[in-house]
Amino acid sequence: MTAPSSASPPGDAPTGASPAIAIEHLEVRRGGQQVLQDISLTVPRGSITGLLGPSGCGKTTLMRSIVGTQVVEKGSVRVLGDEAGSAGLRRRIGYVTQAPSIYDDLTVTDNVAYFGALYGSSRTDIDDAIAAVGLGARAGHRGNQLSGGQRTRVSLACALVANPELLVLDEPTVGLDPVLRADLWEQFHALAKQGRTLRVSSHVMDEAEHCDELLLMREGRLLAQLSPGELRSDTGESSLENAFLALIRKEEAR
Ligand SMILES: Nc1ncnc2c1ncn2[C@@H]1O[C@H](COP(=O)(O)OP(=O)(O)OP(=O)(O)O)[C@@H](O)[C@H]1O
Ligand SMILES: [Mg+2]
User: Fold this and answer.
1) Is the pLDDT of residue 35 over 80?
2) CA 172/CA 153 separation, integer angstroms
3) Is there an atom of ligand 1 within 6 Å of 55 CB?
4) What is the number of H-type helices and E-type strands within the chain?
5) Tell me: the pLDDT tens digits for 115-124?
6) Which of 71, 73, 132, 245 is at 20 to 30 A from 116, Cα to Cα?
7) CB contact set of 199 (below 8 Å; sequence gap of 6+)
């Protein structure tokens, strides 16, 4: 699996540019319930940040706030130097939702070409995006002829085709076999190397190993922002799963 070749992100950040994501005192309510509480964080460009935490802790809500599809109660969310949700950001961010939807009656190529048309992508961009997610051999298959994991990868190709500077991926590896998961992580690293920023959520702690930095969430709060190595040394645990649990216990004891 290779990264798309037309690789450099369109608005490649000059040194000293604003961070990829800067959030200050973010509060979000959904269904009358406070689901994000006083979240502040900064994510540098060209890195892979893992957003981890148990089901229902607010990962998707935080991602929606970053891509600008979430109504925010308080606080500020700036992405690539602009206010989240501003029109200019649309083509600079690729978002793959947790339940990816693709057109069942279109082929893989036509699904990706449909998104590509919105962004003026070339045929080469489309073919590169499909190759990047390892679906070259299925390019002519319709959506309803694909497995769950293959559908997820088509969604990822739809996000990649616009050559975005920031990729926000909500649990992109759920339901994939270990080989495919490893392939996708390789692809994510290749994209980060090109200067793109990736924001990947997961509730599987072993995926944390692949990230430069981790955002650990619980019940709508940010517990910690640190690297996998720091998480291990802070807690004295060698397994990241145990380290996360130790961190939660430490918080509870406080
Ligand atoms: N449409 C909605 N209306 C009201 N409340 C919602 C809605 N969507 C999510 N919530 C609530 O917001 C909280 C955070 O949900 P969110 O989807 O952000 O969690 P998550 O960490 O992504 O979970 P998962 O790992 O299961 O995807 C949950 O308590 C959930 O009940
Ligand atoms: Mg979610």
Assistant:
1) yes
2) 8
3) yes
4) 7, 10
5) 999 888 999 9
6) 71
7) 21, 43, 49, 51, 63, 66, 166, 167, 168, 169
